[in-house]
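User: I'm writing a short report section on ligand binding and want a predicted complex to refer to. Could you take this sequence and iron/sulfur cluster and write out the structure as tokens? A short remark afterwards would be nice.
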Amino acid sequence: MNAPLPQKVIHPGQQRNELSERLAREVQGDVLFGLGDRGRYATDASIYQVDPIGVLIPKTFDDIRAAASICADLHAPFVARGGGTSQCGQTVGPALVLDNSKYLNRIIDFDRESMTVTVEPGIVLDHLNAWLRPHGVWFPVDVSTSAQCTLGGMAGNNSCGSRSIQYGNMVHNVLSIDALLADGTEGRFGPLSTMPTDGSRMAAIVRRLQEVAAREHDEIARTVPKVLRRVGGYNLDIFNPQSERPYTPDNSPNLAHLLVGSEGTLAITRQLTLQLAPLPTHRMLGVVNFPTFYQAMDMAQHIVKLGPVAVELVDRTMIDLARNNPAFGPTIEQALVGEPQAILLVEFAGAAQDQQATRLRQLVELMSDLGLPNSVVKIPEPAAQQALWSVRKAGLNIMMSMRGDGKPVSFIEDCAVPLEHLAEYTSRLTEVFHKHGTSGTWYAHASVGTLHVRPILDMRTDGATKMRAIAEEASAMVREYKGAFSGEHGDGLARSEWVSWQFGPRLTEAFEDIKDLFDPQGLMNPGKIVRSPKMDDTSLFRFKPTYRVLPIEPALNWSAWNVTGHATTQTTSAPGTGDDPAHGFAKAIEMCNNNGHCRKFDAGTMCPSYRVTQDEQHLTRGRANTLRLAISGQLGPEAFSSDEVRQTLDLCVSCKGCKRECPTGVDMAKMKIEFLYQWQKQHGLRFKDKLIATMPRWAPWAARLPWLFNLRDTLPGAAWLSERWLGLSARRSLPRWRADTFLGTVHSDHAEDADVVLFADTFNNYLESENARAALSVLEAAGYKVHIARADSQDSQKERPLCCGRTYLSAGLVDEAKTEALRVVQALRPFIARGVPIVGLEPSCLLSLRDEFLVMGLGEDARSLARQSFLFEEFLAREHVAGTLHLSLKPLPQKKALLHGHCHQKAFDAVKPVQTVLQLIPELNVSLIESSCCGMAGSFGYEASHYAVSMQMAELSLLPAVRKAEADTLLVADGTSCRHQIADGTGRQAEHVARVLARALV
Ligand SMILES: Cc1cc2nc3c(=O)[nH]c(=O)nc-3n(C[C@H](O)[C@H](O)[C@H](O)COP(=O)(O)OP(=O)(O)OC[C@H]3O[C@@H](n4cnc5c(N)ncnc54)[C@H](O)[C@@H]3O)c2cc1C
Ligand code: SF4
Ligand code: SF4
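Assistant: Sure. The structure tokens for the complex follow:
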């Protein structure tokens, strides 16, 4: 092995100031050197964590040029980064991190004729493909993280998609890369015939590469695995091709392919030109159900002969985890025949519909011939196919939702073996896992012999030792089957050590020559691919042996996370038994595995603040990382109640998008409540926050003196003063107080014989009482005897209406919220006992009975209450489905309704019921706005400091959709704040569904 070149690399602690000062002077981008920012960039989706020197978010490529030159001056390493979704620690290191994803994401050039596109490295794959779709083409390297991975990162890792059997990997689809070298040289890497041959540095590099390749010609043939899925080391075989699938049509070398898979160690990509493919017009999906895992593996080799574009495995554990996930359960169910031990998703695609249908028929016949008749579920509809693919894509994330310290760990996750050995390889490796007291879940690319598997290891205890032992046994098998150890996810910190094992000493030395040729100072992402540390160096782990959680007495009950996982049975111990000094709160935070799924912009809610800011700090992942670092003392001893952490949570609108959409169930809204509780215990509350939080207490006064409380919006200058003194934006009107409250004006009652209890929350009682009246009239028209919930006669504040405590929770006043919750439970106890449904109108209020009430230690009655609580529309839809709803409705003058779901409705899958009940109105055509959060989020949008972000959130999709709606379209939104935002942003009035139904009553 070549000795490492003499390097004068700065210690991260030293010269940091100099680097940050020079960057601040010389670049336009964001220079982030604080402890929190560094902490958020210290991890990717791997098990590693290394404090970077600092972070630069370059605005232009000139910033990268300047940064590279400053780093060269200071001998500071640097590493480019996209979405940071690498699984092997590629983006982690003591270096300056250059995050390309925020600004360097443009499409530079598109040529439909030649089907090529040139892009900047920070563009996200799904964004590119959305742009290309109208042109009938796509970039077909469809990795599972397509919603967040960037093309620069994909090229860096030589990424591979589910359909690689048809389209190959990145290396097969990149035509050229324009790149910057560490010494400032810039050039285009493309076909050898186009490379300079003059006296330039680029020409010298090409000549030297050719010499190295010629020297190693035979060694390349001898050691480079001849499989499609091989992404380890450098692609020196461009000069002597070994891949099953040629890199270029005529096997001629393309120098860009040497940079593909080089993990930012040779050059920084400025732009890349990609080969596109026609969008397949017809897809057919067949799901084959197998009684044993072995059969699934064994039969894959026969299935690929039918010419599918993808054959993807989902095993039993994954099936069960998906079934238990609210977002994926219904989708997976429809693909199953009985209780299979594994399923294979087999996709056929192309231009001719008949041909795909024929192939699907052939699949059915083949399975019958192989002894598995009736094992194929045909899925011809694109929407259903899409839904199933998203379950498969989320596979790893679903698996990571296991609670406890043991987690599925990626280090032999993508070994590739020839198909004929797949069944034997998987069963032998499963035995190895058992021998080491663990188990693994298998899934993914059966078509190309790259099955993903992650043994469950506890990296805080014996994980490192087991990791090495398993890796050694797995590697011996891979060698025996002539496979590739690194078949998809790259080398990084986890597998660079194995490069010499895979390619032998000669090629390892050649790789070091290549590294030194491109980057003589060793500044570009050092320690990856060549001259790497050991994979099990625990000082590089996220959970190092020194990792400790600071003791915290949480206000909420986190015991469901405070468990110990059992690695072989994949079960967990009883809640509360997990020895977490933070009683489960820390373990809930640690559920974030950094996969970056929250960086998505597609359908769904998560994460509105990131969608607007594109800052890692304002992302669920960034928040979870900040909390983890704080609760483990890595941001300083007092960090957990610091401004830094508060800032990180400031733009979280508590939409609960992550609760539903984060595959590991990170529930940041709940964590924010806990954090704010801890914060206000130490720092107290600002007057404004107290004022909003205590609204249910002073609301009765506002109802008595509405003219006084409404002065803020009528008296000239009052709004301005409220902005100065209270921080309430002068650009917002406030909700109007009124004397005709619902509870003050409605007296109907059925305490003893009620069929339904109507819970009027603070907002619908005081501010929009017509909604509650409408709900009452609809329920009564449907024949229900309605009891209106009021405080219990024993309640010390029995005159004051009931309240769910939401405003208190938003400020972290958990004790006060608990008092309110107890009043609700006490008042409703007789109805809970009789099983009477409790119906509410405001999603964030009613749904807290099903959510936060369960973690406030309120006992069994609260659990029963949660089971019996329904949103108004959920109750009606349920009755309708049961055939017991007797509601006569007439057509309305308006024939179209446009619906915006409140975030909490989305989080609890409660938007569909609104559609269901609206569709009961004859002739009404209902459509749904695909929107994230409206941006109002309780008091968030009223605050001057949040006004701009709030409006940007609304402008993402909600307000443009409302503006497009015809004037006579009904706008339906159940959330008080959502209606306010729609009115502020468009001047149009949305209504609660109860009012629409009430108008339609016959
Ligand atoms: C749940 C999950 C599923 C996954 N599924 C797949 C899959 O199906 N297929 C697959 O191949 N991978 C998969 N991965 C791994 C990862 O998502 C992909 O490799 C992805 O393409 C990385 O993109 P990124 O933008 O996050 O890159 P990053 O992780 O940010 O970077 C990747 C590498 O590229 C380098 N790089 C980034 N930008 C530049 C640049 N401008 N110039 C030079 N180098 C640069 C980085 O230094 C790093 O070495 C998965 C990961 C997760 C967490
Ligand atoms: S918060 Fe959830 S979605 Fe985001 S990175 Fe963490 S685990 Fe993934
Ligand atoms: S609650 Fe909403 S805003 Fe907060 S982190 Fe989760 S998705 Fe983002």
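A remark for your report: Confidence is low (pLDDT under 50) at residues 1-9. The longest strand covers residues 282-290.
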